[in-house]
Amino acid sequence: MKLWPRTMAGQLVGLLLLGLVAAHAIGLSVVLTNGETIHSISRDQMVEHAAMAWRLGTLPQAQARQALEAIRDGNADYMLGKTADIDEGSQQGYDQDAIAEKLQASLGLEARDVRVSLVRHSARHGDLRIAMRTPDGQWLNTLQHPVMSQAWMRPLRFSVPVSTLPVLVIVFLFVRRILRPIKALAHAAERVSRGEQVGPLPVSGPSEAREVTSAFNLMQERLTRFIEDRTRLLAAISHDLRTPITSLRLRAEMVDDPQLRTAMIRTLEEMRVMVEETVRFARDDARNEDTREVDLRTLLRDVVEDQLAQGRDVQLVRLRSGAPDALPYRCRPVSLKRAIGNLVDNAVRYGQRARLAVSSGAGGSLHIHVDDDGPGIAADKLPEVFKPFVRLDAARNRNAGKDGGSVGLGLAIARSCIEAHGGRLELENRGDTDRPSGLRAVISLPV
Known about the structure:
The chain is an alpha+beta fold. The protein has helices at residues 8-34, 40-57, 61-71, 94-107, 153-193, 207-253, 258-283, 296-309, 333-351, 410-420; strands spanning 76-81, 114-120, 126-133, 139-144, 292-295, 313-316, 328-331, 353-360, 366-371, 424-431, 436-445.
């Protein structure tokens, strides 16, 4: 399972969180590498107290002992002796070296004349021992209790939430504001891919989002203009061709030879149907229909009832028991019904009967099957039947029909309607590869 967020907002917030954690880790590593254990202010105070005690220790012995006794308290102890309480080189560290260097610099002592030892008892307390050689050869031994630095977890428990949570909240709100127009654009593009009409999107957000939104609005405007221009062009061609076709039919009626007259009239009728169906195919009526939610099973039942009323053998079957009775789906019902009707017409025309079924697929998609009992189609010819005006069998019935199937537009119109819903239409042979037992049209619709 991938833990990295998939959304841009989640990724940006995740990157920021990783950056903050890395910054704290780097700071922590510096602190741990540094080795500092005494609070910096307390360390300076310890150095000042030790230097003052050493200066008092340089007085005559009686005065020195009296002065050191006077400054002794519960947190500090100063004693003069012949030997140092700390063995030379017994303990080293950042704090010890820093204290020794400061004492040498301020008192003018040699490195061998200063010894420092630190023993930590808890997170906040420890014992600091300093031994310094006086000019008369004695040793001033001091014992102090400095304030220790906090353990690394204690400041992190405060600094991490305080520095991270407010930043994450502000960034999250800001990122949501930035991504709002991008989400609107993605939603609009998805609707356009399903063939819906979408008004111009408001241009808002940062400059990059505004540029993308403006480009999308311009693209949609040009696409709409192209479709309208194509439809008007084909409508004009249809109008211009209708007059000479009608004129030729009137002249064909005056031909004396009945057989020739019938052939001419049939050819002219086919030309008229082809022109009208071409315009209908180019107009793409689905774009003018509003999208609404319907019950897909009810829509299929309506298709079946329309076919049964024409005396055709069409049934709606269930692929498995226990399937839900209702399948709500948001679509343009007239367009979808037209596509399914075209497939059923082809199944009945070339396969004697049609069997419809609907099921749910992976990812929540919907699948509609239209099966027939015909001879099927050669595998290498399956992609060809979706092309306009392609008819694989020249002997098939060419009588005009409202779906345009007789002129080779039925499957092209069906696929156009399905793809306008964001789905796809595929044909496959049922049965064995060598001996197919019918053709199956599979409609896959996204939810």
